[in-house]
Each structure stands twice: as C-alpha cells, then as structure tokens.
Write a structure and sequence with these properties.
The structure is a single chain. 51% of the residues lie in helices and 9% in strands. The chain is α+β, with helices and mostly antiparallel strands. It has a five-stranded mixed sheet with strand order 3-2-1-4-5. Helix 1 (12-21) packs antiparallel against helix 6 (153-162) and helix 6 crosses helix 8. The mean pLDDT is 97.
Length: 202
C-alpha cells in the first residue's frame, strides 16, 4: 500500500496507525500547492480532491479521508487493538471521537492556516476552537487516552491536529489534560518513528 502524505499534515494520523498496527506502507510525499508527488506524478490523477491523505491499495484502488483510512488500516490488524469490533458500542464511541477530531478540531484549527484570515476572523476562529478544546480537556480528565487506558486510532488523529497548535501559535496552556495527552502520545515509540520518517524530528 502507498500512503500519499505531506509532512505534519493530517496524513500523519494514518501513518501513525499503520506503524502501530505493524502495516508496511510505501510513503509518497506530495507537494500540495503544486499537486505533484515527489516522483513528479500528477496528484490530481491520484486523488481528484487534491489533498492528503490518500491510500492506494495493492489492487490500485484509492481510499481518501482521514477517518476512513484510520478505520481501514486498523481493521486490517484487529489484534493490534486500535479499534473495537464493528457494531460494538466501543466502536461507535471511537467513531464519535474520530468525527469530533475531524469536524470540530481539524476544521477549526485548519482554518487558521488561511493566510487571508483577518485578525478579527482569527479571533473568532480561535474562540470557537477553544470551546471544542474545553470539551476535549474535560473528556480527557483522569484518562490516558480518549477511550481510557487504550490507545486507538482516535488518539492518532487528535494528536496530529492538536500538534498544529505549535505552528499556529495557539497556546494550549489552559488545557492541562490536553497538554499531558499530547506529551503521552508523542512519547510513543511508533509516533516517534512516524515523526522521524516525515522529517519532523531528528
């Protein structure tokens, strides 16, 4: 399988999950602004949506959207325990956490990368993001990870998008549980491996 990625983008989440699950992936770096892969291929031809991640399966089929890739990869290696059984209540809670990461954290923080965002709109966006982070901080109280003591695909996604706060200069100081969560996930050996492979740490 090939994972089309951009360093530190949301594609880091499926990269982490693949490593945690012991799934071998060929990494293909994408120049997002120019829609070209590192070997010069037209990324539009691979993913007509134009953004990462995209996962090309061994049969040539391509899957997109972070939440789908996370579940697909975890389902390939159920023994890794990164996702509960389909149809179980824990699985629905994991999907709930994935959707929260996608629609309430990813989208709110991701909007701050827009260079045309006015200072006033940035302030509004940060205030909206802060309300989501308030809820997440409460949900993490007394827990190692989102689902409790078990690391799941939702943690990989939340860690990835929360990591953007450094680049965006969004201070996480008031959310002690989130800060502890970020440090805990960052310390995982496979997360370190993913960060190193994408050139984010040495």
């Amino acid at each position: 399988m090939k994972l089309y990625y951009s360093p530190g983008a949301c594609s880091l989440a499926p990269h982490i999950v693949a490593l945690e699950a012991g799934i071998a992936l060929e990494l293909v770096k994408v120049d997002i602004p120019n829609k070209k892969t590192a070997d010069g291929a037209d990324f539009w031809a691979i993913n007509p949506k134009g953004y990462v991640p995209a996962l090309q399966l061994d049969n040539g089929e391509v899957l997109t959207e972070v939440g789908v890739l996370l579940q697909y990869l975890a389902d390939q290696k159920p023994a890794a325990g990164l996702l509960s059984a389909a149809g179980s209540m824990p699985r629905y809670h994991e999907m709930e956490a994935i959707n929260f990461a996608a629609t309430e954290v990813h989208k709110q923080l991701g909007a701050l990368f827009n260079p045309k965002l006015t200072p006033e709109m940035r302030e509004i966006q940060i205030a909206t993001a802060a309300r989501r982070l308030d809820a997440l901080d409460k949900a993490l109280a007394g827990k190692q990870y989102v689902m409790g003591d078990r690391f799941t695909v939702a943690d990989a996604y939340l860690y990835t998008v929360l990591n953007w706060t450094g680049m965006l200069k969004v201070d996480l100081g008031k959310w002690a549980n989130i800060q502890a969560f970020q440090a805990r996930v960052a310390a995982r050996p496979k997360v370190q491996d993913a960060l190193r492979a994408e050139g984010l740490i040495k």
